[in-house]
Specification:
single chain, metal-binding, Protein-Tyrosine Phosphatase, Chain A, cell wall biogenesis/degradation, 14% strand, Mur-like_cat_sf, 9-stranded mixed sheet, 6-stranded mixed sheet, binds zinc ion, ligase, alpha/beta, 484 residues
């Protein structure tokens, strides 16, 4: 299901060899522990954040040059046992074969084959690297790309850019370059515990939790409990977590090293009751506190309309190419992670700013001869974010909803989404469940025209660059057709 998403086409930006330093040269004192090694309790968490850019970081762009992502590793697998080397080589062969046969990016199958041959492969490949895991219901792919780019300001970083976010996808990503000292890995919410059973990441980013494919993923509270277990297995990692989401606070509040990000919450219906004791919390828009003691922590980073405030109240402009509040929140998580790993703010931000799409999300593509902006929304929370994004313009709007296996068959969530935000605005609808969507829109007093395909829908909208908001398989299909 990830076969049609693509890795970024953007060239990798790297330092010149003379400027390249090993990550060790960048680490602050407490970061000198080797990856995977647990921080002793008396050691404070790293203090790389909140530092203003130094004079030599101004105009940091001039210190970087763009080189194509063709640099191959120079280090061959050394010091590994026969079985591990065999797993690495055969996994890579399987990935390359799958690619050449046109079966997809090859990542999943390569990772799966390699893991079958060496069940310990994930921890072996993670050893000696600083790995950042990114999880949550929404924003994983975009944030992971931001983290990877930010880390590349320091040294090469691998990432599961194709969105394969379980263990085989992680192995596949780590296999792509054995000498990269950094990794940014998106991880499915229910699989983080399997990762921390195997090794301790340098940092874990907990973005948000909300209902998503209830017929497949399960209840939000189950996911929150699973994240809590995952974090308990990695006490030395730095956790960067959303303080406005009670489910995330529940998962992270017992961890010794948490950096709290405040980005507000738009979707509140999965956090009305306390995830710890079940009591009614009420409006989580303000400082919330439950009678059991679970409460909104103080923020280390607070996202604003243009950037982010640090704990000392200093404002940092973000000026992202990616649109919307939701991406300022994602970028804040990525920036916090980069600083925790010893990165420089100016260099990390320069790279985050340049990202203009993530696996097709927010990309401007051509569909049926028409230029469109492509947006992914796959559950009530992400629909709210995307509707908020388009409500600021008057471009033509096409909404596409499918209900295939990867989407979840149940589309009752359509009634949870506040389509009333579009009241009076004409929209075109398409996809397997266009009629369900049209009924929902009728109740929201949104004039909708049902089209047989996205191309037909686009033909029925005039002027401007239409926004196409599509759920998972619908998004994937439109993206694939745009690349033909
Ligand atoms: Zn409570």
């Amino acid at each position: 299901m990830t076969d049609t998403t693509r890795e970024t086409d953007e060239p990798s930006v790297d330092q010149t060899p003379a400027q390249r330093q090993t990550p060790d040269q960048h680490r602050t004192a407490d970061q000198h522990r080797t990856p995977g090694q647990r921080r002793s309790p008396e050691q404070p968490p790293s203090t790389g954040r909140h530092r203003p850019p130094g004079p030599d970081e101004r105009g940091a762009d001039q210190h970087w040059k763009v080189v194509p992502a063709t640099e191959r590793e120079t280090e061959r697998p050394r010091g590994r046992d026969l079985r591990t080397n065999l797993a690495i080589n055969i996994g890579r062969m399987a990935a390359s074969l799958s690619q050449r046969l046109g079966l997809g990016s090859g990542g999943m199958i390569g990772g799966r084959v390699a893991l079958t041959l060496q069940p310990d492969l994930l921890q072996r490949l993670a050893a000696g690297r600083r790995v950042v895991m990114v999880t949550g219901t929404n924003g994983k792919t975009t944030t992971t790309q931001m983290v990877a780019e930010a880390m590349r300001a320091q040294a090469p970083a691998v990432s599961n850019a194709t969105g394969a976010n379980m263990l085989d996808g992680h192995v596949a990503a780590l296999l792509t370059r054995l000498d990269a000292p950094f990794a940014a890995l998106e991880v499915d919410e229910l699989h983080l515990a399997q990762v921390t059973e195997r090794f301790e990441p340098a940092a874990m980013l907990l973005l948000n939790l909300s209902r998503d494919q209830l017929d497949r993923v399960g209840e939000v509270r189950t996911v929150a409990a699973s994240l809590q277990r995952a974090l308990a297995q990695a006490p030395g990692a730095q956790v960067i977590a959303n303080r406005d989401d009670p489910n995330i606070v529940f998962a992270a509040s017992d961890h010794p090293n948490v950096t709290w990000v405040s980005g507000g919450v738009r979707w509140r219906d999965d956090a009305l009751n306390c995830p710890r004791c079940g009591s009614f919390i009420g409006d989580v828009d303000r400082d919330w506190r439950c009678q059991c003691g679970l409460a909104r922590p103080a923020a280390d980073w607070t996202v604003t309309d243009t950037g982010v405030l640090d704990a000392e109240g200093t404002h940092h402009e973000l000026a992202l190419a990616l649109p919307g509040h939701v991406n300022r929140v994602n970028a804040t998580f990525a920036l916090a992670a980069a600083l925790e790993l010893g990165g420089e703010e100016a260099a990390a931000l320069a790279r985050i700013r340049r990202i203009s799409q993530a696996a097709g999300r927010y990309d401007t593509v051509r569909v049926g001869g028409r230029k469109v902006r492509l947006l992914l929304a796959k559950n009530p929370a992400s629909w709210l974010e995307m509707l908020d994004l388009v409500s600021g313009n008057d471009e033509p709007l096409v909404l596409v909803v499918n209900s295939r296996e990867a989407d979840g068959y149940d589309v009752s969530w359509l009634w949870d989404v506040d389509f009333e935000m579009l009241r009076g605005r004409p929209v075109q609808v398409a996809g397997d469940r266009a009629l369900d969507l049209a009924v929902r829109l009728r109740y929201a007093q949104v004039p909708a025209t049902v089209a047989s395909t996205v191309e037909v829908a686009l033909g029925g909208s005039h002027g401007g660059v239409p926004d196409v908001i599509a759920n998972y398989t619908a998004f994937r299909d439109v993206l694939t057709r745009s690349r033909r």
